[in-house]
Amino acid sequence: MATSAKQICVEDLPALVNIELGPTKPVLVSQDRIDGFARDTDDFQWIHTDPVRAAAGPFGSCIAQGFLTLALVSKFLHELIDVQDATAAINYGLNRVRFPSPIAAGDPLSATARVIDVRQNPRGVLLMATVVMTVEGAQKPACVAESLTLYPDGKL
After folding, report:
1. Radius of gyration of the chain (CA)
2. Residue 67: which of 93, 100, 41, 36 has the closest Cα?
3. Residue 143's closest CA among 106, 101, 86?
4. CA distance 104 to 32
């Protein structure tokens, strides 16, 4: 069952270290979403956008772009951690990303997250979390990403 966002203040973020949050509500990774991402990024590889050819390909259907999957990290993290007093939540980067299994067009994708570190940064508070995105019933996760989110303490 999906959980609602953990509402928290910046100063309380360290209390989330080593806590698993989630899962999120599933997001449908539809062919329309995949095609839209292809248009936005010029990634028209046939395994993503040609259902006929993809049906005969290595995955048996169109699959989501890895970077489409990765783009959902921020959405999922915000669903899991809602920092009430933050002026912003800035994508500060990634340390490690893997795509162990594909996401077929039409699959529902959800995520869990584990906060692994919270530390002061010259610009604010930096949260490091491992986000694991999964398709229901899949043996392996679709994506595992170590994400960095900066909660600034002023103007950047």
Report:
1. 17
2. 41
3. 101
4. 12
Give the tokens for residue 123: 């610009």
CB 4 within 8 A of CB 81: no
Between CA 11 and CA 107 the distance in angstroms is 37
Q: Is the dihedral of CA 65, 68, 73, 78 positive or negative?
A: negative
The string of DSSP letters for 41-101 reads HT---HHHH-HHHHHTSTTSS-B--HHHHHHTHHHHHHHHEEETT-S--EEEEEEEEE--S
Give the pLDDT confidence of 53-95 residue by residue, as tens digits. 999 999 999 999 999 999 999 999 999 999 999 999 999 999 9
Pick from 22, 23, 47: which is nearest to 34 by CA? 47
Question: CB 36: neighbour CB atoms within 10 A?
Answer: 12
Q: Which residue has the higher pLDDT, 84 or 5?
A: 84
What is the pTM for the complete model shown?
0.93
